[in-house]
Write the structure tokens for this entry.
Amino acid sequence: MKHTINILASCFLILIFAVSCVDDSIDFFEVEKPESIAELEYLNDYDVLKAYVDRAASPNFRLGAGVTVSEYLGLGHYYRFINANFDAMTAGNAMKYNSVVADDGSMNFGQVTQFVAAARNAGLEIYGHTLVWHSQQNLAYLNHIIDDRELETDPDATEEVIDGFKDYRVEGFTGWHGGPVQPYVENGVLVVNNPEEQPNFWDVQFHVANNIPTIIDTRHTVTVRIRGTVEDEITLAFGDWGGTQNTTIPITTEWEEVSVNLSALHSNSFVMLQSGKYVGTYEIEWVRVSHQAAVAVAWWTPLITNSNLEGDDFSYYFATEATDGPNPATIGEPGTGIDGGRAVVVQSGNSPVNAWDTQFFVRVPRTFEDGDRIRFTLKYRAEIPAASETQAHNEPGGYLHWQMAGTPGFTTEWQELAYTGTINASQAGMNTIAFNLALLGEANTYYFTDIQWEFEESGSTIPLTPEEKADTLTYALRTWISGMMEATEGYVKEWDVVNEALAGEGNVDGFYDLKSAVRGTVSAEAAANSFYWQDYLGVDYVRTAVQFAREYGPDNLKLFVNDYNLESFWDDNHKLKSLIYWIDRWESDGETVIDGIGTQMHVSYHMDPQQQAVRDAHIVQMFELLAETGKLIKITELDMGLIDEDGNTVRTGDVTSEQHRAMSDHYKFIIQKYFEIIPASQQYGITHWSPTDSPQGSSWRGGEPIGLWTESTFRRKHTYGGFADGLAGKE
């Protein structure tokens, strides 16, 4: 076999130097070849690396290298070195999203097209890396296109803002009263019966609405829906015990909505009626307090994603049943809700001591402060009619305030509670609405469904809806993939369609979850510096990427899902098992086809034999699991570091000859096991990610001996021999 590269220096070096200044005599010394050079001479007998691939036995196999595209395009020594030793290349960064897409969304494929042209001229293939990834994305552009939308408003326009609403059609009387008359709720109205005239109008008085957040020195409109048995007038007071503004309102024998305008003296007010001079009975359906404010763009943001209880997330619902709790609430079977749907089911016990011995809680992942506005609705019923109370809690069971969303009365028929209001100072810090259900005195069963909790946001911009964000990003993904396919002109026929999707934690059907900033399967740092497409397009975003790649790519396109730590020993290859689960799930639609699996294998050789043995066993198991999938299998990013007996990373300059040879043997082991276990029809290639050792300041394994050649001199290392022997199947 002919060998034409890496010829070592001549065998002898002659050094000339003066040994004496007295006689100016010159001595000649013969210097032996350094042992470090001599022990590598056997590598001169090796051919170029790709010569060791058995093309007949593995016809689909390609030997690849990770390359720095800018250096390759220099068409110098690096270009010739790659061409001589490899069949294919993978661009380190040049074909990634952030290298092409600018902050304004424009795409510059200039370097990509040059790379394709150079590869085509050299007869080398390109393995595309990567179409969809969370890292190296243009965050400025992607976050901008899903940012809040600017809204136009009329600066002179005003609107009515509801500060408080007391609805006796669904609530009981809970206000203060004074004098001989006790108001009560009957048939959905508050009833006040004064059989005789009192000496003073304030001798009959009561709070018809309480704890209303108001704005000092701002005029508020108080509206009362009222009627009476006789026509007359009564006094309305607005304020608190430190001072009120008073006026009179008329009562007629027909239902009327009577409004008065009064300035607020306090930030928390009541509405008090005083009717000692009125003789007869009057009824009130509701009381509303509002004020006019400049129009603000406002919207309601939902906080509960499983309102109808048909999904799997029940993390919002808790219950205490007969003093046991709070615990996750019981979700009933289909039919417990409305029209065959599901409901939360809460059981109360006999002879309760306190109203809160049985409670239902709705908790949301947001804490509300004084002035925040919320909207809360649900549908409810019970087996036996019963009263209830609502409270503000800071967690289920963490009582804050006795009043929250009214006092709904349960019947055996479904009713709807609809509460809109502003959080006051006493309720500040709340994130939970509690229903006190032990008011009946006997056992009962309560049902809740269609539970919605929203909070009001306002400003000059409005967030896009999840559907709008998904639509926008789907368009951006289509633009990116179609642009890349057009730029590569069908020459790049193999791609990492999705890179590093799995989190290595979480639980989905017993397997690892996908990486997600929303579901918390990534660190806070990763969430801030990455863009997780699946958080907006859903876990089936891979199907979308595959669809676009096949739509715009060549007919013979091969698509791989690529990930790292598939050889993991610490979880018995569970990450690979999880990846296989997700591929099966993505392909279950009968349309999505993923051709292959890429395993990165950024490994390290451990000089501790026991540590290395367990790793070897799981490399073998990885190949066995991959072979069983029937998919094309490619080692996409193979390189190797070194760990000494004490568990320390060894730097390039510190590697001993013994350690070099151990790394060489490990390369041989990995490659031989690949060819031994992966059937020939599935063998798609091995790419060495960094052919030369990593420079000291590199961001990728800086200063580590990961190459098959030395960093600057391109001299073959022992690992070159092990890698070549593995390709050749040498024992």
Observations:
- The first strand starts at residue 13 and ends at 18.
